[in-house]
Design a protein that fits this description.
This protein is an alpha/beta fold and 531 residues long. 41% of the residues lie in helices and 15% in strands. The protein has 18 helices and 15 strands.
């Protein structure tokens, strides 16, 4: 009767049902049948687009629209000990739908049963193999689930399969199709669950970080110009490069672009490139599979995958190391990537918005940033003016931050006098809007609901005084290099006064009115040694 009989297939069905992953299901089916007496070889081909097959992707005619049969599992016991029946490549890896016997089974959904083979039939591609292995029966059953043909289960046997055995093979093929469909669904659910967990964690972090920066405040001409540019570019899918000093609100502009775009119902995912170690950039961007490196205990989607059909905000893009920039350019242009440790190419549809406080043109000239990536990112450049160039917005921002801070602290909002507003408007604000927000919030805490009392670093009562960057005479204009030198000297002096500390109430960040993470980023960018 051959290798397929009522005593063996039910046991194999139970073993298959215990598997969840697709590869485990396929391996259990083929290896289980291969252990039956007289089995030479059993194989499973699944219908997939050529572009998703690792072996067929390099074909010139490979596309997501062309669906073919691809060999995904193979097992057998050869007479030749040198033969490897577990290989998936070779001339029988791919069958176009409707071509050859396997292709016709998939195209028609009709099973195939050829018994009493002699080894010299005209349709055989390798008659010598049939003769050498003593194959007397070839059977192929379509794998059908809910009227969809998933693939083909093929069997080469040294025995003669009778009608009962062939009927059991059909029953098993139907069961195998259900197991394959369930495994695919399980893997998709696991992928979506992991992605949802990452998005939820990310969004919780973003909500915490975004407190106090939820809307634009101000009516200056400079701010209105920025908002008009946002309205122009938001409905498109063009890449946007946002430039400006630290603390000017580049992330707020990125959020405004996303919220006004057709992608607003999907996630806005942020990557702070200055906070990612060089060795982890690829995993952060593209994700990794379990076991890809030490500590990779589970599959993890990257930021590009999480932002699929949404927007990816690459903050501090100038911090991306040069070797990683080529891979970043590829995923932006080709919309495809591979997770670390994986060979499967994944496709994404992501809009990229990048931001930097560096002069990327100078970085390109210095060889630290790829010119092709710069042009790809700056399809629509958008510059955010510093707070000192829109001083008329400072009073409105101060009032807004006072009300917001008081509400968050559950205390009465202190009174803002005109003298305090004038003092705020006259300050240079090297830390821009972020510095203003921090100063106001600190003052709200100290005021305890009374009149707001502001103590700026330039006030005579504060000691020690950190020298600010000198302002050039009205007849002169400082160059970019001079501003960088002045910034470097200012930060170095602050570090000296703080004895090298960045964080804490006596750290350099407090002296400079900057967020510690921003100061750490500038120290790294300017090459300052903390000691």
């Amino acid at each position: 009767m051959g290798s397929v009989n009522p005593d063996q297939l039910p046991q194999l069905m139970v073993a298959t049902a215990q598997q969840r992953g697709l590869q485990e299901v396929l391996r259990t089916i083929t290896h289980g049948i291969a252990q039956c007496p007289n089995t030479v070889l059993t194989r499973i081909w699944l219908v997939e687009p050529d572009a998703l097959c690792d072996l067929c992707r390099s074909r010139e005619d490979a596309s997501e629209n062309e669906r073919s049969l691809h060999l995904v599992a193979s097992a057998g016991i050869p007479r030749d000990p040198q033969a490897d029946y577990g290989r998936l490549d070779g001339s029988f890896h791919r069958f176009p739908m409707g071509e050859r016997k396997i292709g016709r089974v998939a195209a028609t959904g009709e099973p195939l049963w050829l018994a009493e083979l002699q080894g010299n039939e005209e349709w055989m591609a390798h008659p010598a193999w049939f003769t050498r292995e003593g194959v007397r029966t070839f059977a192929a059953q379509p794998l059908i689930f809910r009227d969809e043909i998933l693939g083909v289960l093929g069997l080469f046997d040294r025995g003669l399969l009778n009608e009962e055995a062939f009927e059991w093979l059909r029953i098993f093929a139907d069961y195998a199709a259900v197991s394959i469909a369930n495994a695919r669904a399980y893997e998709k659910i696991e992928m979506l669950r992991a992605r949802l967990e990452e998005e939820n964690l990310y969004l919780r972090e973003e909500v915490t970080a975004a407190l106090g920066m939820g809307e634009f405040v101000g009516e200056s001409g400079a701010l209105q110009h920025v908002l008009r540019q946002v309205e122009l570019v938001a409905p498109t899918d063009a890449a946007v490069l946002i430039t400006g000093e630290s603390g000017t609100g580049k992330e707020l502009v990125a959020r405004a672009i996303h919220d006004r775009s057709p992608r607003k119902d999907r996630a806005l995912i942020k990557v702070n490139c200055s906070a990612v170690p060089d060795a982890l950039f690829e995993s952060e961007f593209f994700g990794h599979v379990k076991g890809a490196f030490t500590g990779a205990l589970a599959d993890r989607p990257g930021r590009f995958e999480m932002a699929d059909h949404g927007t990816l905000f690459l903050d501090e893009i100038g911090e991306v190391p040069l070797p990683m920039q080529a891979k970043l350019l590829r995923v932006i242009q080709e919309r495809e990537f591979e997770r670390v440790g994986d060979t499967r190419t994944r496709n994404v549809n992501v809009r990229v918005v990048a931001a930097t406080n560096r002069d990327l043109k100078q970085e390109v000239e210095a060889g630290r940033f790829r010119q092709d990536l710069y042009y790809r990112l700056s399809v629509f450049p958008l510059h955010i003016p510093p707070l000192r160039e829109r001083r008329e917005d400072i009073p409105k921002l101060a009032i807004h931050f006072v009300a917001q801070s008081a509400k968050r602290m559950n205390r009465r909002a202190p009174r803002l006098t005109q003298a305090v507003l004038s003092q705020l408007a006259a300050h240079n604000w090297p830390g821009n809007v972020r510095e203003l927000q921090n100063v106001v919030e600190r003052a709200v805490i100290l005021s305890q609901g009374r009149t707001l009392d502001i103590h700026l670093q330039s006030a005579p009562s504060r000691a020690p005084e950190v020298p600010s960057a000198p302002t050039p005479p009205a007849s002169q204009v400082a160059t970019r290099q001079e501003w960088r030198r002045q910034e470097r000297d200012n930060i170095t002096q602050a570090l000296r006064l703080a004895k090298g500390k960045i964080f804490g109430p006596d750290g350099a960040a407090v002296l400079l009115g900057m967020k510690p993470t921003t100061l750490a980023s500038r120290i790294k960018a300017l090459g300052i040694k903390k000691n």
